């Protein structure tokens, strides 16, 4: 008695059945991927065949079906006889690294941009954040990434970092420009001040040179005036400030009489005649100029004799313009000295008082 033949099993003739990978598996059948175990023959002689039924050869196990090697287009579950839509397909992994990198670089660029002193460094991470963020957004549009918010944040932060870097650079440029302008202004002020100082020093030097020249001229004039006021008997001198001209004649021997005070014994009496003339246009006061100072060679004052007869007049107290007066004085030389004598005449106010001196032999 033979067993019924199932679809997909060996035929009754003993040959292997053809394998159909697209046919659904039969109920109770072993999947094609797992070969059916081979039947184990019973030990010993089998029972005799029934009379009238031909003896059949023992059934042999079919060769296991080999599943085709999976290729690049093989879906999950291929070889099981089930359609590809009945199995889950592999989902490609999202590439979100560029978006994260863009946001990180954007944060770094923005923070460096806020720190103004690092404006020169903030532009690089900010620019990289914008570039990587743009690439990440393109991946999001293509479905290769799903972090659109992070990529967009990276682009925005990168743009902010770039703006802060540009603003910091502009701020520093303005500060450097203002600093240079201040330095130029200070330099200009310093140059102007130095120029003024040089001009001042030059003017001071010119003024000092002028004063020195004036002083030298005054000294020369004073020396010349002093020399001009040192005269010999018979010489004259004119005071430029007042216009007074004064001259002294050579001493003359004088014999005193009873009208003149008695001279000391063993003395020589001389008569001195001094003439004063007002050459100016205003009256002149001669107070303080009415007395002559007569000295011998030893710088000792000579004895002055007084005339009580009125024949000998003295220098007046004042002179009118154009008026001329000759005054006479009598002096006694001790021991009949014939050495050089000097006669001094003083004139002028307290601040500009000068003396005229005549010197020579008393005769």
Automatic annotation (TrEMBL):
Annotated Pro residues bias: 22-38
Pfam families according to UniProt: DUF4190
Leader sequence residues: none
Coiled coil: 198-225
Compositionally biased spans, kind Low complexity: 7-21, 39-64
Domain DUF4190, residue spans: 105-166
Membrane-spanning segments: 97-116, 122-140, 152-174
Keywords: Coiled coil, Membrane, Signal, Transmembrane, Transmembrane helix
The organism's place on the tree of life at top rank: Bacteria
Segments of this protein annotated with the region Disordered: 1-73
UniProt name for this protein: DUF4190 domain-containing protein
Native source organism of the sequence: Kitasatospora indigofera
Source lineage: Bacteria, Bacillati, Actinomycetota, Actinomycetes, Kitasatosporales
